[in-house]
Amino acid sequence: MADAHLGYEQYHQPFRAEDFARSFRSAVETAVKENVDFVLMCGDVFHKSNPNPKTIKQAIDILTILKRENVPVFAVEGNHDKTIKDLSIYDLLESLGLLFKLGLRRRFRKNEFLKSKPLGELNLVYADFDGLKIFGDTHRSSHHFRLLMEDRYLPDCDVLALHLSVKEVVDFEVKDDYVTVADLPKARYYALGHIHIPISKKIGDSWFVYPGCPERYDAREYSKRIEYFESLKVFEGCRKGFFVVNGFKPRFVEVESRELVLANVFAKDQREAVEKVREIQDLLSPESILVLKVFGENVNIEDLRSIVERRVKSLRISFEKVQRERKIEIKKLNEVFDEFELGLLEYLKRCDFESLMDVVVGYVEREFGIGEFKTLTEFEGGKSEEVKVEEKPTKPKGKRTLLDFLGG
Ligand SMILES: [Mn+2]
Q: Label partner for 303 (CA 20 to 30 A): which of 15, 342, 363, 408?
């Protein structure tokens, strides 16, 4: 399991923190029914490293279910719940006998499940479960991780638990920090956290597995996506849950999470927006979270809000002004900028401000006439109107040149 994110009040909604606790509880209860020998938590049990008392109680209550069943929990800290202070919330849970923390630690640990390997002033604490060696460590930056791996601080092992992005495993483009398979020690099973959608991939003889967050952490993890441009289209989203592993082979087990619907609607006017949103309503349940994005030219989202708000548990609505027909494809600079603008860009590149000023002044003289600086004349279909310069000058309509951006 990974990324329970207890205490996360998504969209500033306290009920969401309850949802995250419910999904985690459901994962734990399902694991007990599946008769697992132990649970491995791959980071971000908590959304914050300093959870409030209510969140701590949720964690204690849920982990107690496993303790009562004599199912040990091994855990590594994630980027959300690690701390540079002496003790983390994981240490508190460990003191209560609710989990065993793996990784580099100051204190030597040895008990029923844990062993320690001294490394300089620190100890690498790992688990030995009936001869199965489970190593792991707290989330670290890839830089720090590679630095530590120069000394092979994590040895080859059976199971390796880490909280980071592994480039070859994550098929979408990883924007944040990542390591590659070559940076890792050899293991038969890589239990990973940090990526919130479930991924399991076999590379060579090893499994690389991200269980993901058991609840829908953000709108990219939608349960359903609706696209309503020309016609109404519905796409299924990702499933939520954890993996039960047997003989190193992972099997995904789904856990129920709250429905989060992402809807993108294009409407050229208010009437179309209202019609389309009413149609979408039939696809929602009163328990859904709806993230509605309206694209169009002239739409009042407050009206839409009042229509749809009562039909869902929670609504996020936003509007983006777009002109549907306009598709901008930039091929070459000279297709976008005119000769003057290209010249301007050249001078900007060279930081040749004197020549730049010559170009600008020359342009202004040509386009507006230097003598008419007292008044600006607005051209539009032959109609001309004088505007005093002391007042804010009206921009020539439909003329968006680079000069406009430069304050012209
Ligand atoms: Mn996370």
A: 15
Structure-block tokens of residue 184: 């890792």
Domain range for 278: 260-321
Pick the closest to residue 48 from 6, 3, 12, 17 (CA basis): 6
Query: How many structural domains are present in the chain?
Result: 3
Do 139 and 215 share a domain, yes or no? yes
Query: CA dihedral defined by 186, 192, 197, 202, rounded to 10 degrees?
Result: 20
Catalytic sites, residue numbers: 80
Assess contact for 39 and 72: CB atoms under 8 A: yes
Centre of ligand 1 to C-alpha 62, Å, is 18
- pLDDT tens by residue, 302-326: 999 999 999 999 999 999 988 656 5
Residue found under tokens 């107690």: 64
Structural domain includes residue 214: yes
Tell me the residue type at 306.
Answer: S
Going from the Cα of 212 to the center of ligand 1, the distance in angstroms, rounded, reads 8
Contact criterion met (CB below 8 Å) for 60 and 98: yes
Q: How far is the CA of 78 from the centre of ligand 1 (A)?
A: 7
